[in-house]
Amino acid sequence: MGVTGTRNDAADAESLRITEIFLSVQGESSTVGWPTVFVRTTGCPLRCQYCDTAYAFSGGERLALDTIVERVLAYGVRHVTVTGGEPLAQPNVLPLMTRLCDAGLAVSLETSGALDLTGVDARVMQVVDIKTPASGEVTRNLWSNLARLRAGDQLKFVICDRQDYEWSRARVGEMALPAGVEILFSPSFETQPPRALAEWIIEDRLPVRMQVQLHKVLWGNEPGR
Length: 225
Prior knowledge:
Helices cover 28% and strands 24% of the residues. The chain has helices at 2-13, 65-74, 93-102, 162-174, 194-204, 214-219, and strands at 15-25, 35-41, 61-64, 79-83, 106-111, 125-130, 154-159, 182-187, 209-210. A nine-stranded mixed β-sheet has the order 3-1-2-4-5-6-7-8-9. α2 packs across α3 (93-102). The longest helix has 13 residues, at 162-174. It starts with a helix and ends in a 6-residue tail after the last helix. The mean pLDDT is 93.
């Protein structure tokens, strides 16, 4: 029994629970439009009201880190995004991202902003959410993460309504971000009309970049897209 347990522990130390690995078009951030492999990890400690990946909360398949890297490389594209769920809920995501960087890939991390960014490889582009009041998880924002952002990283606000916008506008005015960090405002799909959000941003001359989720425009809420 002890030997079996040791083997299982060793396997777990070099693996992650994965919901899916698939090729699509990046729909957000500064790499929008690029063919991208998505590695969707399983599990998330948050329950945002607009979440469209609840199927990743549980289940999944435990895969060795080497297997994940092999499957990503097999698609033959340069960009890879590690997403979830919440990737940082599994500590082994850190060595996975380093291995993907070492393989010469352009790696990005999509994270809720509720878990510590410490240990994320400096070569990884961090796309970090700030949870708004309408998300239902505003109390989970880990504000100390702002100091861990780097040039080229993205800070994303998903806007659900006018109150969310005003709250987010106030946060933008308060934050002192490292140089080169871009702020994104994204309308919650099928909740916040994109045109209205664009007009609010223009009216306030807000120093943010509006984005719509390209993959949602193309495929809606279809899983694996």
